[in-house]
């Protein structure tokens, strides 16, 4: 898929290296959708000539985005946009809604939906007795047809009726809202670890690849725990976005 040449503004008097300026502007164009997945960049010689840069400078800029997973070099095709990294704000929202808002074409594959006894950890999170029945839903969330996250959610068994078709059509939080559940707050922990072999195969990453982890207990407006989530995200495709305020 060809595209019109993008315009870049490079400040040669800036202490910021030219390759970094170019890579940042290319990344911004990908994030804005000006370079959609599948778009082809001009070759390094053409781009270097158009911008008045050396070929090694352009190569370094492109390589930095290849390393981030935003571009890929394909033999006989050229340098191609793969996808933009999703930057998710830290707020009480669903991954499906965030991907849809970012025009990432979300899709869902239900891996498992079963009723099982609550472990001590799940029971503590949901406020139920250990061994009580809870609903487990495991899904694979995709963006532009590529794996993005493995989602594991435990819910009170009587909370709402769910079927695979509904779960593959939209996000869990949207289904909760449609059932009249008002989401109010959540406790969330973010971490990171290496992918196991099975996790890597599921998420199209090599064993040992970095994964972001997120655990969340979500409460409705009555204070009832309605969800205990344990999610894995591809670090190459996904980031959490923080806004920090100075302590007064």
TrEMBL record:
Domain of life: Bacteria
Domain HTH gntR-type: 16-84
Sorted UniProt keywords: DNA-binding, Transcription, Transcription regulation
InterPro entries hit by this protein: Bact_HTH_transcr_reg (IPR050679), Chorismate_lyase_/UTRA_dom_sf (IPR028978), Tscrpt_reg_HTH_GntR (IPR000524), UTRA (IPR011663), WH-like_DNA-bd_sf (IPR036388), WH_DNA-bd_sf (IPR036390)
Pfam annotation, one family: UTRA
Keyword Chloroplast (UniProt): no
PROSITE patterns: HTH_GNTR (PS50949)
Alphabetical list of SUPFAM superfamilies matching this protein: Chorismate lyase-like, Winged helix' DNA-binding domain
CDD domains according to UniProt: WHTH_GntR
The protein, known as: GntR family transcriptional regulator
Organism: Streptomyces abikoensis
């Amino acid at each position: 898929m060809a595209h019109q040449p993008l315009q870049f503004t490079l400040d040669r008097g800036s202490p910021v290296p030219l390759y970094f300026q170019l890579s940042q502007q290319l990344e911004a164009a990908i994030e804005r959708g000006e370079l959609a997945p599948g778009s082809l960049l001009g070759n390094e010689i053409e781009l270097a000539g158009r911008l008045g840069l050396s070929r090694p400078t352009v190569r370094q800029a492109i390589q930095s985005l290849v390393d981030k997973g935003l571009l890929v070099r394909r033999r006989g095709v050229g340098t191609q946009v793969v996808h933009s990294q999703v930057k998710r704000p830290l707020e009480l929202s669903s991954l499906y809604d965030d991907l849809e808002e970012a025009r990432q074409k979300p899709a869902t594959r239900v891996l498992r939906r079963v009723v099982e006894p609550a472990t001590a950890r799940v029971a503590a999170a949901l406020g139920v007795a250990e061994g009580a029945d809870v609903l487990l839903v495991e899904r694979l969330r995709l963006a532009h047809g590529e794996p993005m996250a493995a989602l594991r959610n435990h819910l009170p068994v009587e909370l709402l009726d769910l079927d695979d078709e509904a779960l593959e059509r939209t996000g869990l939080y949207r289904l909760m809202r449609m059932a009249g559940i008002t989401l109010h707050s959540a406790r969330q922990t973010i971490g990171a670890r290496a992918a196991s072999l099975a996790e890597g195969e599921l998420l199209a990453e090599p064993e040992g690849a970095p994964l972001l982890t997120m655990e969340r207990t979500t409460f409705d407006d009555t204070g009832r725990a309605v969800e205990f989530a344990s999610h894995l995200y591809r670090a190459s495709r996904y980031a959490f976005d923080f806004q920090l305020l100075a302590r007064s």
